[in-house]
Amino acid sequence: MQNEENTISQAQGSDFPFSPPAQSVQYQTENVQSTQIPQNSPPAPPPPKPKLSKFKLGQIIKIFIGVLVFLVIIMVLFFAASKLLNKESSGVNLTFWGLWEDGKTMQTVLSDFERQHQGVKVNYSREDLKQYKDRLLTRTEKGNGPDIFLYHNTWRTVLSDILLPLPSSVVSAQEFNNYFDVAKTDLVKNGAIYGIPQNMDTLVMYVNTDILASGGVNIPSNWNDFIDASRSLTVKDEEGKIVTAGTAMGTFGNVTHAPDIVSLLFLQNGVDTKNLDATSDRAIGALNFYTAFSIDENNVWDDSMEPSILAFSKGKLGMYFGYSWDYFTIKAANPSINMQIVPVPQLGNDPVNLASYWVMGASVKSKNQKQVLDLIKYLSSKDVLTKLYLEEAKTRPFGQPYPRIDMASNLKDTIIYPSVLQGQTANSSLFVDAAGENGINQELNTYLENAINTINDGTSVESAFETFKQGVAQVLDKYGAR
Q1: Alpha helix ranges (H) inside 21-150
Q2: What's the domain range around 333?
Q3: Where does the pLDDT of residue 76 fall: very low under 50, low under 70, confident under 90, or very high at 90 and above?
């Protein structure tokens, strides 16, 4: 019995399962009944292994595919949005029509733009002014016109169907205040801005300093002094033929910028060319004043003289009316001429001047309007205007006069400074000769030319004005420019 107790004791202290002999089991059954397992009970079945049903697996696959499609859509939207938001887009070609600068000069600033806007290429084309406006309209209507182009400040109405209004991100109303006031009149309609001036030029007076000095004449600042100076400077031969003219006014065909000079007189005398009936007396007075220089008995000019810009270049004309760019023509014809650019004579105490300038416009038909607007904003910045001016001045005495008031002082030491200063008191007119050989400007100029020619031929100023007035009304109505 003691041995059996020892055996049980060993079994209870073992770390491993113990299989006792049959006698020991009987002993345990008698004494440890609470731990005995009934002999007839079947073993407990093992727990079933978990399995994925076909239904659940299909759901997971569907969810996976859905997530994948969702991610693909998000990526596509992200890249599309990035393309729209980025300042540059790959493979964008812009066409820029200019008129005055060659490709080499323009490329100095356009290359910088292209570097800043990767994937954008600007194709600059220097166009011929001949038939330019018609070509611009026709090509744009056909869908193969330029994305950005220059246009004359008097063309906004005529080009209204193709001009894209500029958003405030390009130029705000506040920023536009930095440009000369005439631009607000010419380029703004119903609060929308339809272009940014590329330059600012005004009609100025060139004086041959040698002729004035030899005649003892001071530079006139008003029209009364101008009349006296022009007569004093005029030299005629024994037959009364003009050898040296004091000024070139009175006729039309041989006076360079004749319509511009008459426009200046109209503006200073308060003529409203869009409503000549209301200011007919003032218009007649201006026409009478202009033609007196050729038909008066003390005439200083006539139709026998060569074109006034040539006469001035040859030293046969004391005072000549022109624009800043006439300087190059005069100097090319006579490099040794001594001349000075001065403000035009005034009629009253409040100066009134004439502006004629060119504007950068954006095509409403462009397929790349965002890049076009970026380019206009870039080209109109002060830094780029300065860089372009300096580049232009490498090959000629000066570049294009700045279009911004806050940059005028930068030209203080140049010969064209008077032209820029006059921009602050300048107005525009449809009667200008720089705007091309056809269209509204040319048609109006033709009626003006006819009026001046008939006055020189002996027709009264009043009669010539009536015909002129009717013709002007017809042209303005034709182009919707009233």
Answers
A1: 22-31, 54-85, 103-116, 132-142
A2: 204-354+439-479
A3: low
